[in-house]
Write a structure and sequence with these properties.
Number of domains: 1
Order of helices and strands: EEEHEHEHEHHHEHEHE
Number of helices: 8
CATH superfamily: Alpha/Beta hydrolase fold, catalytic domain
CATH architecture: 3-Layer(aba) Sandwich
Number of strands: 9
Shape: globular
CATH topology: Rossmann fold
Distance between the termini: 48 Å
Strand order of the largest sheet: 1-2-4-3-5-6-7-8-9
Radius of gyration: 18 Å
Strand content: 15-25%
CATH class: Alpha Beta
Structural class: alpha/beta
């Protein structure tokens, strides 16, 4: 049973309207006591906002007004049917997450952001990233199977080349939930994700994306960034992170390799960053987001 953090007010349901008119389901967790900041949580692919509730409540208890959301096609922002649902994978960033940033009032409190996996991709795609004072992301990587351990590489290739095509042909979308991997995904998301995971540097290497000028967009980011990846994260190991996060070449950037045993954790993987056992990680990251000088184990960008 999930029990809210004691003393933290209940979350408020919100409806956000993206620039193209799509209505998104969001939740706002008000700060406990004197407010110190606004914090937006940028979730992972196929992960509903409820997964981040414990983290959001913890951050609210430390003085942050926290905003979470479900991207279009996912969770409470899903249409009645995903079959035939048209969208672009990048819409989650440039429209949906952008709407969340726009919804934060300009009231003098700093705006902060925490990403998970896709959330680290999304930040460089935001038209309004300059509003964010600091950004921390967990488990962001390039997605290429070549960065993964051999067994995971085989599993992922089987998904992209065998299971994915069969399942999407049957359903008209990727029934991710049938595989126990998360929320079902719109067909365009599956197709773009599969394609980009075929390149060592993800969508930066895709010649079809040349018109998006992605490298220029990421180079425009000046927000200080910390990227944390666990060594047992088979989907986004540190080498995968380094391949992707190099695109934020003009940002003040630090990376941290997390070793579960040194943190007294049995494991972290790709999803454990936001499970209750990882609370010490939350405290360190929140302290840095709120102006702390550094994080243990942080390594600056190689020059």
């Amino acid at each position: 049973m999930n029990t809210p953090v004691t003393g933290v007010p209940a979350a408020e349901a919100l409806a956000l309207r993206a620039a193209d008119g799509y209505v998104l389901a969001a939740r706002r967790y008000p700060a406990r006591g004197a407010a110190r900041s606004h914090l937006v949580v940028a979730g992972a692919t196929g992960v509903p906002q409820g997964f981040y509730r414990r983290f959001a409540e913890h951050a609210a208890a430390q003085g942050a007004h926290v905003l979470t959301l479900d991207y279009r096609g996912v969770g409470l922002s899903r249409p009645a049917s995903l079959r035939g649902f048209e969208m672009d994978y990048l819409d989650w960033a440039r429209l949906d997450l952008a709407a969340a940033v726009d919804a934060v009032p300009d009231d003098g409190l700093p705006l902060l952001m925490v990403g998970h996996s896709y959330g680290g991709h999304a930040f460089g795609l935001l038209p309004n990233h300059a509003r964010v004072a600091r950004f921390a992301t967990f488990a962001t990587g390039a997605g290429w199977h070549g960065w993964m351990p051999p067994l995971e590489r085989l599993r992922v290739l089987a998904l992209w080349r065998v299971l994915g095509p069969l399942l999407t042909r049957w359903k008209g979308y990727l029934p991710w939930s049938l595989l126990g991997m998360g929320e079902d995904l719109p067909l365009p998301v599956y197709r773009q994700w599969r394609r980009w995971c075929g390149f060592p540097r993800y969508f930066f290497d895709d010649p079809e994306m040349a018109g998006e000028r992605l490298a220029d967009r990421f180079a425009a980011v000046r927000t200080p960034i910390v990227a944390l990846n666990a060594v047992d994260d088979h989907w986004a190991p540190p080498a995968s992170r380094d391949a992707f996060m190099a695109a934020y070449r003009n940002a003040e950037y630090r990376c941290i390799d997390l070793h579960p045993k040194s943190l007294r954790l049995e494991g972290i993987g790709h999803m454990g960053y936001f499970r209750p056992a990882a609370q010490p990680l939350w405290d360190e990251v929140l302290a840095w987001l709120h102006g702390g000088a550094g994080l243990r184990g942080a390594v600056p960008r190689a020059t």
